[in-house]
Amino acid sequence: MPMPTPDLADPSREEELDGDEGNGDDEAPAVIENVEQNVKAVGVLKRRADDRAGTHQLFIERATEAIGRPRTLYFTLCAVVVWAAWNLVSPHLGVAAVDPPPFFWMQGVICLGSLTMTTMVLTAQNRQTRHVEQRAHLDLQVNLLAEQKIAKVIALLEELRRDLPIVANRTDPVADAMQESVKPDNVISALEEVERELAETKER
Q: Cβ(147)–Cβ(182) under 8 Å?
């Protein structure tokens, strides 16, 4: 028996399809607006962190970013090779060597440069570490809040299920457990206990 095929020329069918396409078009701007709000919020956090950093901190970070490139390595190697070659060849050309072997001046400049760059990198990393810790704390707070909201939604759904006469009332231990918000202290204690057991197992 042949199956009936939908009439694509039906005006009501065309209106329904047009309505579905319109709903999709309405949802797209809403999603884009949410993404823009999130991007703006992240930008505000970054600008606020930069404003608190100070002029000297930002200057050191920009200098560290400029130095930490491949061209800096190539320039340093070329400078060392040229300096050593000139001081080795200049006595044979009748010119006094500015820094004869073992190149004490070059060693001093390299040590000073290494100390300076190390201090600059540590200075930049300290603020980055504080920024990462702040982001991690924010992520933790957002995750805890989302978990609490999910637990509340599950509790409301379970309450609605019990009130509906057409749905059989039954005990769901998984849903009952998920209605309770996770306590961070309990999770940390459980993780520490697992790590302790793993350490004891490795020692054996």
A: yes
pTM for this predicted structure: 0.56
Q: Please answer whether residues 53 and 135 qualify as being in contact, where contact means their C-beta atoms are separated by less than 8 angstroms.
A: no
In 3D space, the residue among 194, 203, 159, 199 whose CA is nearest the CA of residue 179 turns out to be 159
Q: Spell out the SS3 assignment of the chain.
A: CCCCCCCCCCHHHHHHHHHHHHHHHHHHHHHHHHHHHHHHHHHHHHHHHHHHHCHHHHHHHHHHHHHCCHHHHHHHHHHHHHHHHHHHHHHHHCCCCCCCCCCHHHHHHHHHHHHHHHHHHHHHHHHHHHHHHHHHHHHHHHHHHHHHHHHHHHHHHHHHHHHCCCCCCCCCHHHHHHCCCCCHHHHHHHHHHHHHHHHHHHHC
The low-confidence residues of the chain, meaning pLDDT below 50, are 1, 3-9, 11-17, 19-22
Task: Give the C-alpha separation, 135 to 130, whole Å.
Answer: 9
Whole-Å CA distances, 144 to 59, 140, 147: 37, 6, 5
From the list 29, 120, 34, the residue with the least C-alpha distance to 72 is 120
pLDDT computed for residue 77 by the predictor: 94
Per-residue pLDDT, 26: 56
Residues comprising the chain, all counted: 204
